[in-house]
Amino acid sequence: MSSPSIMETLFQRTLEDLIKGFRLQLIGESAFISKAMEEIWKEIKSTNLQTKSIALQKLSYLGSLYFVDMSWSAFHCIECMSSPRFSQKRIGYVAVSQSFYDETPVLLLITNQLRKDLGNVNEFEAGLALDCLASIATVDLARDLTPNVFKLLGSSKIPLRKKAIGAILRVFEKYPDAVRVCFKRLVENLDSPDSRILSAVVGVFCELASRDPRSYLPLAPEFYRVLVDSKNNWVLIKILKIFAKLAALEPRVAKRIVEPVCEHMRRTGAKSLMFECIRTVVSSLSDYEAALKLAVSKIRELLGDEDANLKYLGLHALSVVARKQLWVVLENQEIVIKSLMDADANIRSESLRLVMAVISRSNVLDISRVLLSYGLKSDPGFCNEIIGSLLSACSHNLYEIVIDFDWYVSLLGEMSRIPHCQKGEEIKNQLIDIGMRVRDARSQLICVSRNLLIDPAFLGKPYLYGILCATAWVCGEYVEFSTNPTELVEALLQPRTSMLPPLIRAVYLQSVLKILIFCMYSHFQKWGSISFPSSHNLEGVLSESISKGTALESSDTLTSAQDDVFNPRKLRERIRLSFLLRRTDSVKSLLSNCCVIELALEPLLGTHEVEILERTRNVLGLIELIKQQIPDQLFPEEESLSREELEVWKLIRSMNDASCEELGPVSFTAQEKIRIPEGLVLEENLRELDLICGNLQPRSLSFFPQREERVDEWHDSEWRSREDLEPSNESMSLLVEHRKRHGLYYLPSSASNDYPLANDPRSGEHVPDETEDLVRLAAQSLAPKKKPNYSKPRPAVVRLDEGEATFPVVSNRSNSKYDLLSEVVHDVLQETNPMDKSSQKGKEKVRGDIPPGSKENLQDLVDPRREKLGSGKSKHRSHGKDRGHKIPQKVDGEKDENSERARKKGSHRHGRNKMRQRAEEQADLLAQTPDQIPDFLL
Amino acid sequence: MGIRFILMVNKQGQTRLAQYYEYLTLEERRALEGEIVRKCLARTEQQCSFVEHRNYKIVYRRYASLFFLVGVDNEENELAILEFIHLLVETMDQHFGNVCELDIMFHLEKAHFMLEEMVMNGCIVETSKSNILMPIQLMDKTS
């Protein structure tokens, strides 16, 4: 029986052989691995522990570096773990730490082995078990092994105690009640003279405090002592992290630590510690001017450093401070702006974030211009990052920082023109949203949309289709603001639209229909207004025009004979003629429009896309109807035919009524406002849907057009200055070139753009040192404007009453484990008092049956007790028991009591009666002492 | 938890050591390592050593042919992690004597041993070289 095992052992390949083999193999990595795995399969089943452990070692190697599944080996891991030989045990432990997780089925089998090893006299074996526990502890393991870990927390062997401290964090996380047992010993270790212990325990508290800082406020005196006394930078960094959290909660802590923190900042040679001091000051102590000034001077040192790391961190620190103290950024703006061109993408992003932090109403115009010109020069990724952050900054809180919407709409147009623009979806959303919300921006919106629509180059860029869809919709919806609807129709029907996806094409066609209806409607409206005046009216018109001495509109017919003016008969004839002419012109242009549309749409009747087919039919049907009516009335000699009698007028009017009703933004709560009809049970079978959809956040803006519900407009009284705006025709020149080539489908370039292009490519190109230029520009723009020239009020932005500014936030379900943990820490750190006791008792009862999700209730119970925290201590003072001692001792005294309590609770719970008695005594004392919150550090 | 994982990767992008302080499935690990290696190895010496990736911040440093990559929480002090990497390298240097990639390849368990001494559950617990190396030296003597 033993011979094969010996043979196995003798000829087994060790890990080293395996690695060497790997380096020499010629059969390919995966083939080599599967061959090695075959060996491992065989070897790991061996009864010889040595063979087995070597096989397991090879397996963990492959599992760690070559992603080989090793979950099947759980049993073998456990076998190796229980080996009496350290080297085999270690291999077992390493494999367990590496491959076990909460759901490993055989996990419970290792409890006893771990317990045995934790109690082992060999500190290395106990250390192995602690390492393992630190990485894989589950609720059960943590619960069962808490006493063992507790024992080791007081071990006289420093390395072992250190490891126990390291493992305790995981134990607390998994089994919060362990705090009741172990917390006191953990806190005691803060006093340890050994720097290893101190660094471990401070690390643990740093982790604990980062989850729930408030619970650890009572330990501030201990932490303070470490902050002042410790010489170890690692420890100091962790302590500073704790204090950054505590100082934000308790101003007195902040006041107390300012001086030591500054002292460290001045004194230390270690950049890491210095940076941590800076971070602490800018995040939590920015109210202390001297400290902040010192920190800012240090930040400037970092920014000026050659080292990219320090520069990055300097920018990072600036972005923390920028939220509260803008001047700090302004002081360093030159470096910030220059960093936008840094070779390192991370530094660029960081400075972009910084610039975004300082963007405001007064500088948004210039910052956008600077940023976009940087964007054009940098790589596509960063360019899109710039566009994205500009879009989100400007649209924040319903375009809060935008005053001049005409400018912003042009900016959106410019962004769409940037090559590689990947933000089409966002631009599309904003174009539609502005259209719906800002009435005053619509004419500019039409202008921008027109420019985008008529450019055939855009139709070849699929990433812009979203924007084109929005512009097409805008043109149809707000066509009344357009100066030249015919041009829009032509743009919407240009031949390259066949490249669009069907759904967007359908939007195009729908817009054509809307524009057509609008044209007809306005045509017939004019018809009415220019219908031939009745004879007595004419006299009035005549006498008026004569008395004013102005020629009539159709002056060319009149200029020839000045004397004719005084001949009423001739004049009447002329006027009549000119009216007719104008009417005919109008009809003609309408008909030619119809012809263009028919021509473009007829081929579409053969399409298979229903959306397109349907809309095409609609448009063509309408044209058919009109055409039947119009020819008879081309030259209606008899003026008596008023438009009211025209069949077609009625039709057009009702269609126009249908399409001209204004669309508004939709509130997020709109759906909720609909009352559910009685008897309709919606939630019966769909309750599970919440679980599925719970984590899906609603989109930030909703655009499905619906009729407005309640709109309250608000005017913003703030004015803004319009800066020197130079016009540019860059984009138009490109267009002209295109038009020359394909004259047929191109439109007259009549529209003028009053607003400067946000990124005028020409402005930068010929200037050799454009960075300098931009820095100067940025300098101007970042500086707060003293006296803006008031020229234009901010237009009204439609805002729905509720539910819009505050988007439904998915409730931040913090990990219930942490809640539990902080509760227990509270319990341990607090003095008992009667109220405490009762609520605690209730809680303990409740804890069993409340599912982990609903701990908020419990948190509510806990909160009022926080206030009592101090009163317990003031009792100490009034007692005079510890008078004359410094606080640490005091807290120790307090903690002794706590730990006593904790131990009692842990071992025999019937001691509670006695506790309650004591607590009641304290309550009596409490009644005498004023309720005050103690100064932890005094 | 401060440190989430430690990776050592050579210039070719092959992982030489991987230590995680939170459980990830094989697939998650494969994806994560692939992304990080692609992101970090493409960077030049002049660029900074901090890369944000998913919800981690990767702090990395290159020593000869080997990249040391440490994934940390966003709150962690980046410079301290750089110092930690340096400490790790110095410790290995002291043990192996002018450490190179091969040392780590062939003595992976020792490298893991050092890390175990230095880091527990993501917290740095030991920063003294002699303390870190003491158990390894003892083990070497006994075996």
TrEMBL record, chain A:
PANTHER family: AP-3 COMPLEX SUBUNIT DELTA-1, DELTA ADAPTIN-RELATED. Adaptor protein complex 3 (AP-3) is a heterotetramer. It is found in: Endomembrane system; Golgi apparatus. Residues 750-770, 831-938 are annotated as: Disordered. Residues 31-494 form the Clathrin/coatomer adaptor adaptin-like N-terminal domain. Belongs to the adaptor complexes large subunit family. It holds the Pfam family Adaptin_N. The keyword Membrane applies. It comes from Trapa natans. Its main location: membrane. This is AP-3 complex subunit delta. Part of the AP-3 complex, an adaptor-related complex which seems to be clathrin-associated. The complex is associated with the Golgi region as well as more peripheral structures. It facilitates the budding of vesicles from the Golgi membrane and may be directly involved in trafficking to the vacuole. It also function in maintaining the identity of lytic vacuoles and in regulating the transition between storage and lytic vacuoles. Residues 873-888, 902-916 have a biased composition (Basic residues). GO terms for biological process: Golgi to vacuole transport; protein targeting to vacuole. The keyword Kinase does not apply. It comes from the Eukaryota. InterPro entries: AP3_complex_dsu, ARM-like, ARM-type_fold, Clathrin/coatomer_adapt-like_N. Keywords: Golgi apparatus, Membrane, Protein transport, Repeat, Transport.
TrEMBL record, chain B:
GO terms for cellular component: cytoplasm; endomembrane system. It is found in: Endomembrane system. Residues 3-142 form the AP complex mu/sigma subunit domain. The keyword Membrane applies. GO terms for biological process: intracellular protein transport. Its main location: membrane. The keyword Transport applies. It comes from the Eukaryota. It holds the Pfam family Clat_adaptor_s. Keywords: Membrane, Protein transport, Transport. Belongs to the adaptor complexes small subunit family. This is AP complex subunit sigma. It comes from Trapa incisa.
